[in-house]
Write the structure tokens for this entry.
Amino acid sequence: MAIDCMTNIQTMSQPQKQQQQQDHKEDETPLVFDASLLRHQLDLPKQFIWPDEEKPCMNVPELVVPLIDLRGFLSGDPVATMEAARMVGEACQKHGFFLVVNHGIDANLISHAHSYMDDFFEVPLPQKQRAQRKTGEHCGYASSFTGRFSSKLPWKETLSFQYSAEEKSSTIVKDYLCNTLGQEFEQFGRVYQDYCEGMSNLSLGIMELLGMSLGVGKACFREFFEENNSIMRLNYYPPCQKPDLTLGTGPHCDPTSLTILHQDQVGGLQVFVENEWHSISPNFNAFVVNIGDTFMALSNGRYKSCLHRAVVNSKTTRKSLAFFLCPKSDKVVSPPSELVDDLTPRMYPDFTWPMLLEFTQKHYRADMKTLEAFTNWLQHKRT
């Protein structure tokens, strides 16, 4: 085949040669996702067109997700706490998704967190690229992950940054955003610092309920995540003129421990349950919560992370705020002894969160089999 190609080039006319060289250059040129241009484009670049078997279904049934009221739990009511833990456990055994209301997070803070996203994503691309995410890293601005993948690109922009619950890191979010984007983003940084602190506290409360539901007590998982090193991500899905050809986020399970998501009023989140896709309708008063692969390992496979994706539309930008709870980097992910016995032996080897994060950033594109692939990779490395 190589010889045939060489022969064909030699017999081409000069204009044909020039055209082929131009096409080759275009193929090598890195794709830039500029939402201000692409949102109006009728012909999608081929990298954004997903295979037929993975293309989105726009009209899918709604998933009936339990609405868990946290008011009684947060006020210390033992009966309400037991009921909340029971509902959390039931949801995690069924599909791993539930909604929490009366969660104690200030509604104004949530509104500000949504509105401040426009201050970043609506500026010209060169300004956003001041925070450009580097290959192999998980923090910074990413436009459709065009640097990491060459096909099945998601139709979105993200800004991700690290949060730490350690006392010495009380301004880590604000400092990162100011240092990366400039001092004019100080208030922007304060809003997301406060939002992350709220999410961290809410996560620790949910970890108490998860511990109770698994029979290991309130303190077990709360203590494990007390000094968490987590990730905050702002997701911005611009309109797409051919939403039936692409996806905002491809099908995947979160490799992290727990995700707390707040959607705006524009729907788009879909969950794969009982062999079909379902939508989770937006509820501004609620947070969508789902467990991820790291907690699946921590629960020794008792609770499973759930496959989900995001679809886009042709008219309206969709925004979501995702807080990914992750353990402190030196914590070893190993299930409590109460969850390991003759009937349920160890399912996954011990690991630390940075090991799994590195695997998803450098070796593997997160999907529904991330933990399985990571386990195999880890065992291969160790032998």
Observations:
- Residues 35-382 form a domain with the Jelly Rolls fold (CATH 2.60.120.330).
- The first helix runs from residue 2 to 10.
- DSSP finds 13 helices and 14 strands in the chain.
